[in-house]
Amino acid sequence: MDGSDFPGEDWLERLLREDAARAAPIEDAGFSARVMASLPPPRKRAASFLVPAMAALGTAAAVCFTPAGDFLLHNYAALLDGRHPSFSQLLALVPVAFYYGFSFLMLREE
Amino acid sequence: MRTARPAPPPADGGPPDAALVARVQLGERNAYAVLVRRHQGAVRALLRRLCKGDEALADDLAQEAFLQAWRKLDQFRGDARFSTWIYRIAYNVFLMHARTQRPQESLDESQESGLDPETTLADGAAGPQREAAAAELSADLQRALARLSDAERAAIVQCYYLDRSHEEAAYVLGCPLGTVKSHLARAKQKLKAQMHAWEP
């Protein structure tokens, strides 16, 4: 097509491009302000101490109010002794690991 | 076939889209206002064409598209231009709306051009006559575009009105490259049949 910027384009393609070029730009006319006003307010981020604090609270509750409390307490005390930990002592860390892990995943999901 | 091109520098002289997106992802709300101002015209123009000129509906859908983009912005990885990404969201918003609507209403077939297309767009035509012819051509094109399927119309808008590459159009429309080409071929065939009066 004569005068075309796109070699090989046919008359219809030229008409479409010319029509596109003629289109007047759309003025904002308050549209952006309406969009910004419709956005949800900034979400309050969870405090960084929340997860470890909740984990500690949950562990304390488990120790105090469940039958496993004696087992956990005994093994945590043994771990704090700093000697080579046994398998059962390490087992006491599993609930804590689960609690931290799931709390972290939940916060990340949110 | 044209390929995807890098984002051109912003016409408003501000920071590039990628920098603004990064600032929004860090929580800077004002950066999103700049992005909205920068892209609102193109997004609204796209939706107006998809909505067959219904400006109020197009603006509502555009607002919804920017709202969805805000919510999804932390998922934006920069593998496409921000403009392409927002077009995709806008197109999906349009599709969601279209699916809730009744089948497309038939168009007014009685609207015919009162001008002679072969002479009025000629280079030698007088100014007012050329403007009238251009307006008539635009109206005829809009009517012809409105008769296409949503997918065909969207492919034409992406590739000719927004000057996107076929690959970018495929990304925006969420379909394979070959499907875009099929849509374009079918759409052009239909448009040529309806616009034959404008053929030189």
Describe this structure in words.
The complex is a heterodimer of chains A (110) and B (200). Chain A is an all-alpha fold and 110 residues long. Chain A folds into two domains: 1-39, no CATH class; 50-109, no CATH class. Helices cover 64% and strands 0% of the residues of chain A. Chain A has six helices and no strands. Chain A has helices at residues 11-22, 31-38, 50-65, 69-81, 87-91, 94-109. The longest helix of chain A has 16 residues, at 50-65. The mean pLDDT of chain A is 77. Chain B has 200 residues and is mainly alpha-helical. Chain B has two domains: 13-100, RNA polymerase sigma factor, region 2, helix turn helix motif (Rna Polymerase Sigma Factor, Chain: A, Orthogonal Bundle); 126-200, Orthogonal Bundle (Arc Repressor Mutant, subunit A). Helices cover 65% and strands 0% of the residues of chain B. Chain B has nine helices and no strands. In chain B, α2 crosses α3 (55-72), α4 (82-100) packs across α8 (166-173) and α8 crosses α9 (177-194). The longest helix of chain B is centred in the N-terminal third of the chain and has 22 residues, at 29-50. Chain B is globular and about 55 Å long. In chain B, 35% of the residues are buried. Chain A binds chain B through residues 11-13, 15-20, 22-23, 25-28, 31-32, 34-36, 38-40, 42, and chain B through 27, 29, 32-33, 36-37, 40-41, 44-45, 48, 59, 62-63, 66-67, 70-71, 134, 137-138, 141, 156, 160-163, 188, 191-192, 195, 198-200.
